[in-house]
Amino acid sequence: MKRFKTVDDFIAGSENWQDELKRLREILLSTELDETVKWGAPCYTFQGKNVVGIGAFKSYFGLWFFQGGLLTDPAGVLMNAQDGKTKAMRQWRFQTKQQIKPRTIKAYVKEAIQLQLAGHEIKPVRGRPLMIPPELQTAFADDQAARAAFDALTPGKQREYADYIADAKRDATKASRIAKILPMITQGQGLNDKYRS
Protein backbone atom coordinates (compact mmCIF):
# COMPACT_ATOMS: atom_id res chain seq x y z
CA MET A 1 0.00 0.00 0.00
CA LYS A 2 1.43 3.34 -1.07
CA ARG A 3 1.90 6.10 1.49
CA PHE A 4 1.05 9.55 0.19
CA LYS A 5 2.10 12.86 1.69
CA THR A 6 -0.78 14.97 0.36
CA VAL A 7 -4.44 14.39 -0.45
CA ASP A 8 -3.79 15.49 -4.04
CA ASP A 9 -1.10 12.79 -4.35
CA PHE A 10 -3.47 10.22 -2.86
CA ILE A 11 -6.17 11.04 -5.42
CA ALA A 12 -3.71 11.15 -8.33
CA GLY A 13 -2.30 7.79 -7.21
CA SER A 14 -5.69 6.08 -7.31
CA GLU A 15 -6.04 3.98 -10.45
CA ASN A 16 -9.83 3.78 -10.64
CA TRP A 17 -11.59 6.34 -8.49
CA GLN A 18 -10.12 9.81 -9.00
CA ASP A 19 -13.39 11.64 -9.79
CA GLU A 20 -15.21 9.86 -6.98
CA LEU A 21 -12.48 10.65 -4.45
CA LYS A 22 -12.51 14.30 -5.51
CA ARG A 23 -16.26 14.37 -4.90
CA LEU A 24 -15.94 12.83 -1.41
CA ARG A 25 -13.18 15.31 -0.61
CA GLU A 26 -15.32 18.22 -1.78
CA ILE A 27 -18.20 17.10 0.46
CA LEU A 28 -15.98 16.65 3.52
CA LEU A 29 -14.29 20.02 2.97
CA SER A 30 -17.74 21.66 3.00
CA THR A 31 -18.14 20.57 6.65
CA GLU A 32 -16.39 21.75 9.83
CA LEU A 33 -13.68 19.12 9.44
CA ASP A 34 -9.99 19.85 8.90
CA GLU A 35 -8.12 17.93 6.20
CA THR A 36 -4.85 16.15 6.85
CA VAL A 37 -3.02 12.98 5.83
CA LYS A 38 -2.50 10.12 8.27
CA TRP A 39 -1.11 6.68 7.48
CA GLY A 40 -0.67 7.87 3.90
CA ALA A 41 -4.38 8.54 3.29
CA PRO A 42 -6.79 11.49 3.63
CA CYS A 43 -8.07 11.98 7.17
CA TYR A 44 -10.57 14.56 8.37
CA THR A 45 -10.45 15.74 11.95
CA PHE A 46 -12.44 17.91 14.34
CA GLN A 47 -10.58 19.64 17.17
CA GLY A 48 -7.61 17.39 16.48
CA LYS A 49 -9.52 14.10 16.70
CA ASN A 50 -9.98 11.76 13.76
CA VAL A 51 -13.56 11.69 12.47
CA VAL A 52 -13.50 10.20 8.96
CA GLY A 53 -11.01 9.03 6.37
CA ILE A 54 -11.14 8.33 2.64
CA GLY A 55 -9.92 5.09 1.11
CA ALA A 56 -9.74 3.51 -2.34
CA PHE A 57 -9.32 -0.11 -3.37
CA LYS A 58 -9.69 -2.07 -6.61
CA SER A 59 -13.40 -2.85 -6.28
CA TYR A 60 -14.60 0.07 -4.15
CA PHE A 61 -13.83 3.43 -2.59
CA GLY A 62 -15.22 4.67 0.66
CA LEU A 63 -15.32 6.51 3.93
CA TRP A 64 -14.04 5.26 7.28
CA PHE A 65 -15.71 6.68 10.37
CA PHE A 66 -13.29 6.26 13.26
CA GLN A 67 -16.11 6.10 15.83
CA GLY A 68 -18.66 4.73 13.37
CA GLY A 69 -19.82 2.10 15.84
CA LEU A 70 -21.55 4.92 17.73
CA LEU A 71 -23.42 6.30 14.70
CA THR A 72 -27.13 5.53 14.40
CA ASP A 73 -26.67 4.63 10.70
CA PRO A 74 -30.24 5.42 9.56
CA ALA A 75 -29.36 4.63 5.92
CA GLY A 76 -27.90 1.23 6.90
CA VAL A 77 -24.68 1.84 4.96
CA LEU A 78 -21.99 1.23 7.58
CA MET A 79 -20.13 -2.05 7.95
CA ASN A 80 -17.44 -3.45 10.16
CA ALA A 81 -14.67 -4.54 7.81
CA GLN A 82 -12.88 -6.53 10.51
CA ASP A 83 -15.51 -8.28 12.61
CA GLY A 84 -14.11 -9.41 15.92
CA LYS A 85 -11.22 -6.95 15.72
CA THR A 86 -12.60 -3.48 15.15
CA LYS A 87 -15.10 -2.19 17.67
CA ALA A 88 -15.25 1.49 16.73
CA MET A 89 -14.37 1.94 13.05
CA ARG A 90 -17.00 1.50 10.35
CA GLN A 91 -16.71 1.63 6.55
CA TRP A 92 -19.12 3.06 4.03
CA ARG A 93 -18.32 1.50 0.68
CA PHE A 94 -19.24 2.86 -2.75
CA GLN A 95 -18.91 1.28 -6.20
CA THR A 96 -20.24 4.19 -8.29
CA LYS A 97 -20.28 7.97 -8.19
CA GLN A 98 -24.08 7.85 -8.21
CA GLN A 99 -24.04 6.19 -4.77
CA ILE A 100 -22.49 9.33 -3.27
CA LYS A 101 -25.28 11.21 -1.47
CA PRO A 102 -23.86 14.52 -0.16
CA ARG A 103 -26.76 15.22 2.23
CA THR A 104 -26.53 11.78 3.83
CA ILE A 105 -22.74 11.98 4.15
CA LYS A 106 -22.99 15.41 5.77
CA ALA A 107 -25.63 14.10 8.21
CA TYR A 108 -23.30 11.26 9.25
CA VAL A 109 -20.39 13.71 9.66
CA LYS A 110 -22.60 16.04 11.73
CA GLU A 111 -23.62 13.18 14.03
CA ALA A 112 -19.99 12.07 14.37
CA ILE A 113 -18.96 15.61 15.38
CA GLN A 114 -21.81 15.85 17.90
CA LEU A 115 -20.82 12.53 19.46
CA GLN A 116 -17.23 13.74 19.74
CA LEU A 117 -18.30 17.02 21.33
CA ALA A 118 -20.36 15.04 23.86
CA GLY A 119 -17.28 12.98 24.71
CA HIS A 120 -18.62 9.68 23.40
CA GLU A 121 -15.92 7.24 22.32
CA ILE A 122 -15.42 3.51 21.93
CA LYS A 123 -12.05 2.84 23.49
CA PRO A 124 -9.88 -0.13 22.54
CA VAL A 125 -9.82 -3.04 24.95
CA ARG A 126 -6.53 -3.01 26.82
CA GLY A 127 -4.84 -5.66 28.88
CA ARG A 128 -6.07 -8.79 27.14
CA PRO A 129 -3.49 -11.54 27.44
CA LEU A 130 -1.01 -12.07 24.61
CA MET A 131 -1.68 -15.36 22.84
CA ILE A 132 1.31 -16.49 20.78
CA PRO A 133 0.17 -18.93 18.07
CA PRO A 134 1.71 -22.42 18.27
CA GLU A 135 3.37 -21.98 14.86
CA LEU A 136 5.17 -18.86 16.08
CA GLN A 137 6.16 -20.60 19.32
CA THR A 138 7.70 -23.42 17.28
CA ALA A 139 9.62 -20.91 15.16
CA PHE A 140 10.94 -19.24 18.32
CA ALA A 141 12.08 -22.62 19.69
CA ASP A 142 14.24 -22.97 16.56
CA ASP A 143 15.46 -19.35 16.60
CA GLN A 144 16.45 -18.14 20.06
CA ALA A 145 17.71 -14.78 18.73
CA ALA A 146 14.26 -14.05 17.29
CA ARG A 147 12.64 -15.11 20.59
CA ALA A 148 14.89 -12.78 22.60
CA ALA A 149 14.22 -9.91 20.18
CA PHE A 150 10.45 -10.61 20.38
CA ASP A 151 10.56 -10.50 24.18
CA ALA A 152 12.29 -7.10 23.97
CA LEU A 153 9.49 -5.60 21.81
CA THR A 154 6.67 -3.56 23.31
CA PRO A 155 3.49 -5.51 24.13
CA GLY A 156 1.70 -3.75 21.26
CA LYS A 157 4.31 -4.84 18.72
CA GLN A 158 4.27 -8.39 20.11
CA ARG A 159 0.48 -8.46 19.70
CA GLU A 160 0.71 -7.21 16.09
CA TYR A 161 2.99 -10.11 15.19
CA ALA A 162 0.94 -12.69 17.11
CA ASP A 163 -2.32 -11.51 15.52
CA TYR A 164 -0.71 -11.42 12.06
CA ILE A 165 0.10 -15.14 12.32
CA ALA A 166 -3.13 -16.11 14.09
CA ASP A 167 -5.27 -14.35 11.45
CA ALA A 168 -3.87 -16.47 8.61
CA LYS A 169 -6.32 -19.22 7.67
CA ARG A 170 -4.02 -21.66 5.88
CA ASP A 171 -0.92 -23.36 7.24
CA ALA A 172 1.03 -22.33 4.13
CA THR A 173 0.10 -18.69 4.72
CA LYS A 174 1.18 -18.93 8.36
CA ALA A 175 4.51 -20.45 7.31
CA SER A 176 5.18 -17.74 4.70
CA ARG A 177 4.26 -15.01 7.18
CA ILE A 178 6.59 -16.46 9.80
CA ALA A 179 9.44 -16.58 7.25
CA LYS A 180 8.74 -12.91 6.45
CA ILE A 181 8.57 -11.63 10.04
CA LEU A 182 11.40 -13.50 11.78
CA PRO A 183 14.11 -11.24 10.25
CA MET A 184 12.03 -8.17 11.14
CA ILE A 185 11.65 -9.34 14.74
CA THR A 186 15.38 -10.12 15.01
CA GLN A 187 16.12 -6.55 13.87
CA GLY A 188 13.82 -5.19 16.58
CA GLN A 189 11.25 -3.88 14.11
CA GLY A 190 7.52 -3.80 14.65
CA LEU A 191 5.25 -5.29 11.99
CA ASN A 192 3.71 -1.91 11.19
CA ASP A 193 6.67 0.40 11.89
CA LYS A 194 6.77 1.56 8.26
CA TYR A 195 3.25 3.00 8.67
CA ARG A 196 4.10 4.94 11.81
CA SER A 197 5.38 8.47 11.40
In short:
This protein is of the alpha+beta class.
In terms of topology, how is this protein built?
Layout: H1 7-12, H2 18-29, E1 34-38, E2 41-46, E3 49-56, E4 61-65, E5 78-79, E6 90-94, H3 102-117, H4 134-142, H5 144-152, H6 155-166, H7 171-186
Antiparallel strand pairs: 1-2, 2-3, 3-4, 4-6, 5-6
Helix pairs in contact: 5-7, 6-7
Description of the structure:
The protein has 197 residues and is an alpha+beta fold. It folds into two domains: 7-117, Aspartate Aminotransferase, domain 1; 134-195, no CATH class. 41% of the residues lie in helices and 16% in strands. The chain is built from seven helices and six strands; from the N terminus they run H-H-E-E-E-E-E-E-H-H-H-H-H. It has helices at 7-12, 18-29, 102-117, 134-142, 144-152, 155-166, 171-186, and strands at residues 34-38, 41-46, 49-56, 61-65, 78-79, 90-94. A six-stranded antiparallel beta sheet has the order 1-2-3-4-6-5. Strand 3 (49-56) and strand 4 (61-65) form a beta hairpin. Helix 5 crosses helix 7 (171-186) and helix 6 packs antiparallel against helix 7. The chain is elongated, with a radius of gyration of 19 Å. The two termini are 15 Å apart.
